[in-house]
Each structure stands twice: as C-alpha cells, then as structure tokens.
Design goal:
Blueprint (H helix, E strand, L loop, with lengths): L1 H5 L1 H6 L11 H11 L18 H15 L8 E7 L18 H9 L1 E3 L2 E2 L5 H10 L3 H4 L14 H7 L3 E7 L11 E5 L9 E3 L4 E3 L5 H14 L7 E6 L11 H8 L18 H5 L4 H4 L15 H9 L5 E5 L2 E5 L1 H36 L6 E7 L18 H4 L3 E4 L8 E3 L3 E2 L3 H8 L14 H4 L10 E6 L11 E6 L2 E6 L4 E6 L17 H17 L26
Parallel strand pairs: 1-8, 1-11, 2-13, 3-14, 4-5, 4-8
Antiparallel strand pairs: 2-12, 6-7, 9-10, 11-12, 15-16, 16-17, 17-18
The chain binds calcium ion (CA).
C-alpha cells in the first residue's frame, strides 16, 4: 500500500510526469520546508491567517493522505463539459418547453440529473473562478470580470499533482493564463463563433471557416485520444455557446429560423411588488436587444465606425418580411418578434452544443472509456429565456440561479437518478478531488457531491445557500445584491439600495409576489434574515469586496500573446 501511495509523490513534485523511483515521506520534508518560504499566493490575506502557507498546507495534507494509502487503481477519468449561459429550462431532461436535447438527455438517462444546483454569483468569470477553486467570489478574489490569479490553488493543479493528465479547451475567460493543465487551448476573452482564434502556451491558431463549437469538440477529443495510457485524465471542455451574440452555424440557424418558440409564463411581467432593481434593469427583450443581437443587416454604405454604431442601436421599430409581406413592427408585435429572433438563435447554438455532447459520448463508447469516465454537462450559470421579460443572468431569480447539472458515472451513479439535494458550484472542485481519491483542501468551501451522487445524502447536508452578485451597474444596470435561498423561500437584499425581496418558492415559483414587509410575514422574514447572517458568516463574507469594483481583467494578457 505504501508503494502505491508513494507513486503519487514524485508526480506531485515534478509537475505530473511519472517518475519511477520510490520516494519516502521523510525525504520530502525538507522540500516542504522550502515551500514554506515560497510566496505562492499573492492574495492569501483574503482567506488565510498571516502566518499560514496554503500551498504548504495542502501539499502536506495531500502527502499525508497519500501516505496512509488510497487505492489508486481505476481512478475515473473526468470529462467536465461546461457551456456558457445555457439555462436548465432549455434542456429536455429539465422539462424544456422550447427545445429538444437528446444527447445531453442521454446523461440523465444513463446517469443523474440534479435539480437543485445553484451558482453562487451568476456571471461568467466569477462562476469559473469558483468552479476552479471551490471558493466563493469574496475568497478567490474574482467578484466581477477581474483577472483570476493563476498562482492560486485550483482543482486542476491538485488533479495534475495527483497524477491526472489535464486539459482546458475552450472558453477560459479568467484573464490570466491557465495553470495546472498539461494542455490548454483557450479562446481569448469571450471568443467568437466563426473563425475562432485559440491561444496556447506557445502560440495561437485561427480556425478559418470553422464554427467554434465544432473546433472545441475536436480539440477535446484529440486530447482524450492522445492521453497517456495508464493515467487518468481530466478534461475541462468549455463551450462559448450559447453566449450572446447567439450566432448559430448555417445548418442550425436555418433549422430554427422557421420555429415558433412559446413565450414563457412571465414574459409580460410588470414587476409589480418588486423593488427598484428589477425596474431599473437593462436586460429586457423588449428594450435592450440590439440590431446586432437581432441579426438585422446594416446598409452597405457605412464605414467601420458607422457600421458598429448602427448595429449597437436598440431598435424601437423594425421593418421585416412577415408571410412574404414587408411590414414595420412596433410595440407589442415588435417585442414578440424580438423574442422569437433571440430564442431561435439561442436555441440553434444550443443544438450545436448538444451535437457536441453526442460526439463526446460516442467517442467514449468507441474507445471503451465509457465505464470508467465521469461525464458532466453543466453551464457556468442559468439564463433568462424571456422569463420576467429578460435575457442575460445576474439576478438571483430562479432561472439565472439554477445551473443545469447532469452526470454519468456508471460505477457510482444509478442510471435514471433524479437528485434533489442542494448543490452549488463551490462543490464541483471537491467532487472531482473526491472522485479522484484525492484529499480536499480545507480552504475549499464546498463539499464533495460523491455521497449524494451515490444516493446517500449526508444527514447534515445543506438546506440553504448563500448568493452574492457584485457587478453594479455593470453592462445591464443590474443592482448588486446578496441573499439566501432555502428549499422553500428566498430572501434577497439589494445592499446599495437597502431594499429587500422575499418569495415563497412553493406557492409562487415564478417569484412574482414580493412578500417583504407584508403583514403576517414578520417571523418568516426574521428567520430568513437570521439564516442569511449565519451563512454570510459561515462563508467568511465580511463585505471585504462589497464596495470595490475591481477592474476588468478578461482582456488582459493571455500570456505574451496579447498586443503582438
Ligand atoms: Ca456565462
């Protein structure tokens, strides 16, 4: 057993490359001493006492756990597929009324669908930093679009150190270079749908004439195909789709162009009883979609600046063809038309992602890897699909808060499972480590979902969650807020406005009736405020980043390549 555990230790020290020699724990202690003097975490004051060295601590934990022995045999491969802005209610397994996703649904059939997975800060970059670190935004330092400090502890570094062959392919969106990956090929910033550029550690490549979802899929499969035999792999396959500006490939675009998409129940929400925040938002289908979003074609005689200006206009009338006749749409008819254009394109980009999942699953089948590979499909957060008249995310309302999460792991998950336990994006990193039979560092704030996935929910499993959104006013004038969601209620506090919303999720699942301040709600309100305060303290949020809007980092140097 000792020999088996020792085989991890050299891998830990030489960056994941297999070394055949045997090293004892005692021989490593001087090296840990050296690490003790290393300034490994520039921002460690955020989450550690002044004298602690988190890198040393987690290495020590790791080595001790390895020394007591964990069976390394048959550790599962992990394929983590994450799209960008894919709402659960646009997935068949979650009861979509607007589309079909047969390949993603296969994961639900052959594995599990988790129905209560929530994001802790509903926006791209912070969710990605949380998934990597297992920490809330105020601890990992990424509250808005600021740059992630890649020298921090991440699940990729730990898996790589634990012997996994690791890759990050697709949308990274964290400003700094990826670390902890044997291979990375990322889109700069948001990336683009057509003719995408990918950055690597050593160069860049433009895929002229190619569609981004297809390229990401092929690069991911190429990574799996070339993984070293006898070593488990960890692949983060991150799609750009279905993020704005929702540009489908030609085939899917044509297929959805004629589709009529049902409007959601709350499409015409008047925001009655809700606070100023919802009234002030600028992410409305009715008013905030641009000509570019709607794929309107500019006049041909515009120069570059005028062309960009034309596309950025949010039109209040549109002249288009309806049933072969040219008509000018305004008012309610225009709003309905905008919704159709938005959703047709959004869903067409989703369909390419669904195709991609099918290709990955087929490839695993053909390669004999299905049995020992965990496959996850999720999105970095939810999205409004016209719900409350909105597009985008950010708000703590259900459609934006809920992440899709489907997982297949034949060895551990009963096919067709439906899991209602409350899970969060802080849980993903601990889950990967646990599945890989590696220890979870104490500074990770989530919990492993492995017992939950195996159908044994621990008695002390969470029944409430903490949320905090910072990007105010941001791109959509969305007001900063934090809040608590229990299994039955939600309390939201817009702290810069000192306004509250309280919803009964059982009797008002669409969150249309703000109960805050209503007679008879005093005890419920007090209980939820107490729970909110308890959670805020438990996750160590003492407002340390509440009033600071950190500068954007996503367009910073992805290594040396920017600006050349
Ligand atoms: Ca996103």
């Amino acid at each position: 057993m000792l020999n088996q555990s020792n085989r991890f230790i050299p891998a830990l020290l030489v960056g994941g490359h297999a070394v055949q020699s045997t090293v004892t724990v005692a021989a490593l202690l001087p090296i840990l001493g050296i690490l003790g003097t290393t300034e490994y975490y520039p921002n460690r004051e955020l989450n550690h006492p002044p004298n602690s060295n988190p890198m040393r601590e987690f290495l020590l934990i790791f080595i001790l756990a390895a020394a007591v022995g964990s069976s390394a045999a048959n550790r599962p491969n992990i394929v983590y597929i994450m799209s960008d802005d894919h709402a659960a209610h646009a997935i068949g397994a979650y009861g979509s009324h607007v589309n079909h996703t047969p390949n993603i649904d296969r994961l639900a059939r052959e594995g599990a669908v988790l129905t209560n997975v929530f994001v802790t800060n509903s926006i791209c970059t912070p969710s990605r930093a949380t998934i990597l670190t297992g920490q809330y935004s105020h601890i990992n330092g990424v509250t808005v679009f600021n740059r992630f400090d890649s020298s921090r502890m991440t699940v990729a570094r730990l898996l790589q150190a634990g012997g996994y062959y690791t890759a990050m392919i697709g949308k990274w969106h964290l400003g700094s270079d990826p670390a902890g990956f044997d291979r990375w090929e990322i889109l700069p910033g948001q990336g683009v749908y057509m003719d995408p550029v990918f950055y690597t550690a050593t160069g860049e490549k433009t895929y002229t004439g190619r569609y981004v979802t297809d390229v990401i899929t092929e690069l991911g499969l190429d990574f799996i195909r070339n993984s070293p035999k006898g070593r488990p792999f960890f692949l983060m396959l991150h799609h750009k789709a279905p993020h704005r500006p929702w540009e489908p490939d030609a085939a899917h675009g044509a297929r959805f162009a004629g589709e009529w998409i049902p409007e959601p129940e709350t499409f015409w929400d008047t925001y009655n009883t809700r606070t100023d925040a919802l009234h002030e938002n600028q992410q409305r289908v009715a008013k905030d979609l641009t000509r570019r979003d709607l794929k309107l074609v500019p006049p041909g005689d515009l120069d570059v600046a005028a062309h960009a200006e034309w596309l950025a206009v949010k039109p209040d009338s549109v002249t288009t063809e309806v049933d072969g006749k040219t008509v000018t749409l305004t008012g309610e008819a225009l709003v309905r038309w905008k919704y159709q254009r938005y959703m047709q394109d959004y869903l067409a980009t989703v369909q390419s992602v669904d195709d991609s999942v099918g290709k990955v699953l087929d490839f695993l089948d053909r390669s004999g890897l299905t049995k020992n590979t965990i496959v996850i499909y999720t999105s970095d957060q939810g999205f409004f699909l016209g719900d409350h008249g909105l597009f985008d995310k950010r708000f703590m309302y259900e459609e934006s808060l809920r992440m899709p999460f489907l997982i297949r792991w034949p060895e551990s998950i009963k096919a067709g499972s439906r899991i209602d336990a409350m899970a969060l994006n802080v849980d993903f990193a601990p889950t990967f480590l646990d599945a890989a039979q590696l220890p979870v560092p104490a500074e990770m704030q989530g919990r492993s979902l492995v017992p939950v996935l195996r159908g044994r929910v621990p008695a002390d499993w969470r029944t409430s969650m903490y949320y905090r959104y910072y990007h105010d006013p941001g791109d959509h004038n969305t007001r900063a807020h934090y809040g608590v969601r229990t299994r039955t209620h939600k309390l939201i506090y817009f702290w810069k406005k000192d306004q509250w919303e309280l919803f009964d999720l059982v009797n008002d699942p669409y969150e249309l009736n703000n109960l805050y301040g209503q007679r008879g709600q005093e005890k419920l309100t007090a209980d939820l405020k107490a729970e909110l305060a308890r959670l805020k303290k438990a996750v160590k949020d003492d407002d340390q980043l509440a009033n600071e809007q950190l500068p954007n980092g996503v367009d910073g140097p992805v290594a040396k390549l920017r600006g050349k």
